[in-house]
């Protein structure tokens, strides 16, 4: 990234050396000023190079999250459960067949029929029996809205799970870009520490030859210690960010991330017009679609209670078999008929359910208005945040240019004897701070663009939607990182 290159080319060359300033007694060779020389000096702590970890790309992180995240796996399981709603609803209208079998050990009962004939057993000692019943719904009005409601319930569940999937992938994108930005900031802090070590070494050499006061040595040492503290804080922050990302991916923290590079995240074309952006959010966001369908589900639920006022008609059939023929001599029998049921009064239960259903419709309508207002608000705030992030990044880049030019002029003044050593260190610290600020503002800009795409319902980096794409417009995929 440009930050690392800029620091390597500017900060390291800004370090004043004993050979750059006029010296009194020390030869130029006795005043090394590069970070390599500072690292080799006794005052520079030795560091062990950690083994390089494999780099996890943005695309790999998104794909792993979609495959391995436990929350998303649980959401898919809930979706599979919801897919059975229609089957359960249809079970009331499909044939119901029940088979029963029995064995009874009892006292045998014999009845004489004719004097010259053996008695007839009307009750066997070992009696076997089987019975089958069939029940088929012909006209059951309350099942009609129930079946429609089940299909809509499946659709609502699919949209809800799809919204959870996009929220998860957005969280992974945030975590990855945040970790990559911290990785870039870590590189800046490492370069800055090397510069501070070079400053401290130069100050010690200059103090020994009487070229600077002891205050300069103390200041250089303090700056070096502060740089070490900031580097440690950056390393811990980066490790914490990688741990959070690994938790989302359900994998060990055995990877590194690549600094953000490549094409910028594109701003959706619909975002140019506020009204178009808000309309896109209302049309394409899964949570708004689920809230809209929930209103229809509530209306069908109320209709289901109203249809309970109508009678129900069923076709019935039965078949029995037994090893005891009895007086008729028949071991089997069958029946067929129609059954009509009509609940005339149920103690006011239907009326109470209808009033409850009306309240659920009002609740669903209120939730829909809330979801729409939330979507509009998120789009407006995301657009404002994006505008702020763009201005902040532009300002940060201008600040870097100014700090770079100031550092160059201060170095020239120092070489001419018009600036002090402490002024040079302060200017270089300001340059490093400006570079870090630019890294942070670049991250904010990337996240703001992703947030706007998510608020408009357009963030779908993989396109593996869990809802039915035919019912909703296809979202635009986020550009690959």
TrEMBL record:
InterPro entries: OMP_efflux (IPR003423), TolC-like (IPR051906). Gene3D superfamilies: Outer membrane efflux proteins (OEP) (1.20.1600.10). One of its GO terms (molecular function) is porin activity. Residues 24-50 have a biased composition (Low complexity). Residues 17-50, 462-481 are annotated as: Disordered. It is found in: Cell outer membrane. It comes from the Bacteria. One of its GO terms (cellular component) is efflux pump complex. Keywords: Cell outer membrane, Coiled coil, Membrane, Transmembrane, Transmembrane beta strand, Transport. Its main location: membrane. Residues 354-381 form a coiled coil. PANTHER family: OUTER MEMBRANE PROTEIN TOLC. Belongs to the outer membrane factor (OMF) (TC 1.B.17) family. This is Outer membrane protein TolC. It comes from Stigmatella erecta. The lineage of its organism: Bacteria, Pseudomonadati, Myxococcota, Myxococcia, Myxococcales.
């Amino acid at each position: 990234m440009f930050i690392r290159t800029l620091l390597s080319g500017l900060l390291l060359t800004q370090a004043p050396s004993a050979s750059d300033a006029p010296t009194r007694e020390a030869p130029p060779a006795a005043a090394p000023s590069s970070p390599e020389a500072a690292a080799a000096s006794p005052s520079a702590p030795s560091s062990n190079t950690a083994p390089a970890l494999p780099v996890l790309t943005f695309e790999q992180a998104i794909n792993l999250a979609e495959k391995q995240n436990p929350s998303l796996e649980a959401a898919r399981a809930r979706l599979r459960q919801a897919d059975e709603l229609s089957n359960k609803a249809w079970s009331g209208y499909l044939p119901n067949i029940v088979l029963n079998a029995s064995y009874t050990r009892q006292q045998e009962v014999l009845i004489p029929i004719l004097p010259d004939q053996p008695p007839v057993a009307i009750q066997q000692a070992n009696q076997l029996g089987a019975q089958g019943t069939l029940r088929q719904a012909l006209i059951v009005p309350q099942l009609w809205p129930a079946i429609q409601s089940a299909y809509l319930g499946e659709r609502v569940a699919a949209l809800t799970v799809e919204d959870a999937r996009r929220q998860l992938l957005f969280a992974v994108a945030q975590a990855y870009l945040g970790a990559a930005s911290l990785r870039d900031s870590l590189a800046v802090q490492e370069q800055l520490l090397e510069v501070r070590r070079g400053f401290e070494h130069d100050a010690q050499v200059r103090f020994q030859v009487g070229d600077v006061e002891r205050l300069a040595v103390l200041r250089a040492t303090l700056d070096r210690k502060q740089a070490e503290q900031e580097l440690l804080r950056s390393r811990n922050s980066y490790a914490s960010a990688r741990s959070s990302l690994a938790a989302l991916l359900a994998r060990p923290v055995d990877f590194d991330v690549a600094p953000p590079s490549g094409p910028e995240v594109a701003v959706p074309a619909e975002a140019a017009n506020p009204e178009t952006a808000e309309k896109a959010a209302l049309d394409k966001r899964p949570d708004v679609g689920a809230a809209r369908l929930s209103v229809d589900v509530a209306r069908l639920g109320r209709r289901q209670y109203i249809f309970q006022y109508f009678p129900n008609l069923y076709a019935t059939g039965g078949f029995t078999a037994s090893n005891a023929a009895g007086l008729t001599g028949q071991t089997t029998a069958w029946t067929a008929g129609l059954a009509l049921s009509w609940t005339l009064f149920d103690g006011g239960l239907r009326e109470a359910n209808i009033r409850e259903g009306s309240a659920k419709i009002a609740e669903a309508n209120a939730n829909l208005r809330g979801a729409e207002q939330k979507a509009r608000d998120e789009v407006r705030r995301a657009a404002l945040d994006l505008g702020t992030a763009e201005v902040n990044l532009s300002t940060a880049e201008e600040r870097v240019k100014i700090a770079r030019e100031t550092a160059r002029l201060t170095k020239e003044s120092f070489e001419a004897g018009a600036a002090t050593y402490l002024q040079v260190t302060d200017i270089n610290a300001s340059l490093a701070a400006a570079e870090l600020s630019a890294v942070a503002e670049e991250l904010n800009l990337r996240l703001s663009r992703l947030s706007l795409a998510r608020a408009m319902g357009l963030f779908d980096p993989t396109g593996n939607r869990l809802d039915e794409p035919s019912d909703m417009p296809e979202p635009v995929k986020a550009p690959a990182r």
